[in-house]
Amino acid sequence: MGDTILETDGLTKEFRGFVAVSDVALRVKRGSIHGLIGPNGAGKTTCFNLLTKFLQPSRGTIRYEGRDITRMKPAEVARLGLVRSFQISAVFPHLTVLENVRLALQRERGGSFDFWRSEKLLRRYDDRAMALLEDVGLTGYASHAAGELPYGRKRALEIATTIALDPKMMLLDEPTAGMTHEDVSRIVALVRRVAKGRTVLLVEHNLTVVSGLCDTITVLTRGRVLTEGDYASVSRNPDVQAAYLGTDPGISGHVAHA
């Protein structure tokens, strides 16, 4: 098992003859922040759904902590500590921010969420929930309904509820998508902070986001691994520049200014 926490071999997904992911070999180092990037249509989301078990591969294997998880269900891999950001979060928009995190913390009791328990009993989670909210910059929003949060703050809540599950590895699907520049900066700093002591794999389209965040970047195009390395080597790669600039002219600013 060594330093590798998640790995794939020959990972392939076909949809009625269309090959969305083809023969992907991925190695994620324990304790790292690993970016999975590529232009639109590169297969990032499909690959991510395969890793988190929301899709079953047509071929290939997925191993986590040395264990074959290829045919497991999402809930089974989540219990192993491989947690995707949306699996708990944003489910209870009418509850407060504090209550959302408090519910996620209840996992230690087993598979039951104690909606019917007394408020006094549930409040034993308050200190830990508030500490998590402080970590993600949401202390001032504790009493707000989750559904009323601004978009960037809502994504911070998603990360807080994911951390509440005490994952060994967090998988974040485009955590900065649709955000303002200010929110992007805040979420990048947050991911860097909460990654300490954990492994993070994030799918991202924006090279600016991954430039100062990821230790290793895997670039996908047309469902295949184009190249892998740190940001400096990846951004200078002519094939990467062609893949981005050739399919999405708007990304040029990200390559140039990252």
Which helices and strands occur, and which strands form pairs?
Blueprint: E1 4-15, E2 18-29, E3 33-37, H1 44-51, E4 59-64, E5 67-68, H2 74-79, E6 82-84, H3 97-105, H4 119-122, H5 126-135, H6 151-164, E7 169-173, H7 181-194, E8 199-204, H8 207-211, E9 216-221, E10 224-229, H9 231-236, H10 238-247, H11 252-257
Helix pairs in contact: 3-5, 3-6, 5-6, 6-7
Structural class of the helix and strand makeup? Answer: alpha/beta
How many E-type strands? 10
Strand order of the largest sheet: 6-7-8-3-9-10
**How would you sum up the major sheet?**
6 strands, mixed
- CATH level-four homologous superfamily name of the largest domain: P-loop containing nucleotide triphosphate hydrolases
CATH class placement of the largest domain: Alpha Beta
Low-confidence stretches: 247-258
- End-to-end distance, in Å? 34 Å
Shape: globular
CATH fold-level topology of the largest domain: Rossmann fold
User: What percent strand?
Assistant: 15-25%
Under the CATH scheme, the architecture of the largest domain is 3-Layer(aba) Sandwich
Helical content (DSSP H or I, runs of 4+): 25-40%
List the total number of helices: 11
As for the number of domains, it is 2
Order of helices and strands: EEEHEEHEHHHHEHEHEEHHH
Describe this structure in words.
The chain has 258 residues and is of the alpha/beta class. It folds into two domains: 1-87 and 169-176 and 199-247, 3-Layer(aba) Sandwich (Rossmann fold), CATH 3.40.50; 88-164, no CATH class. The chain contains eleven helices and ten strands. Helix 3 crosses helix 5, helix 3 (97-105) runs parallel beside helix 6 (151-164) and helix 5 (126-135) packs across helix 6 (151-164).
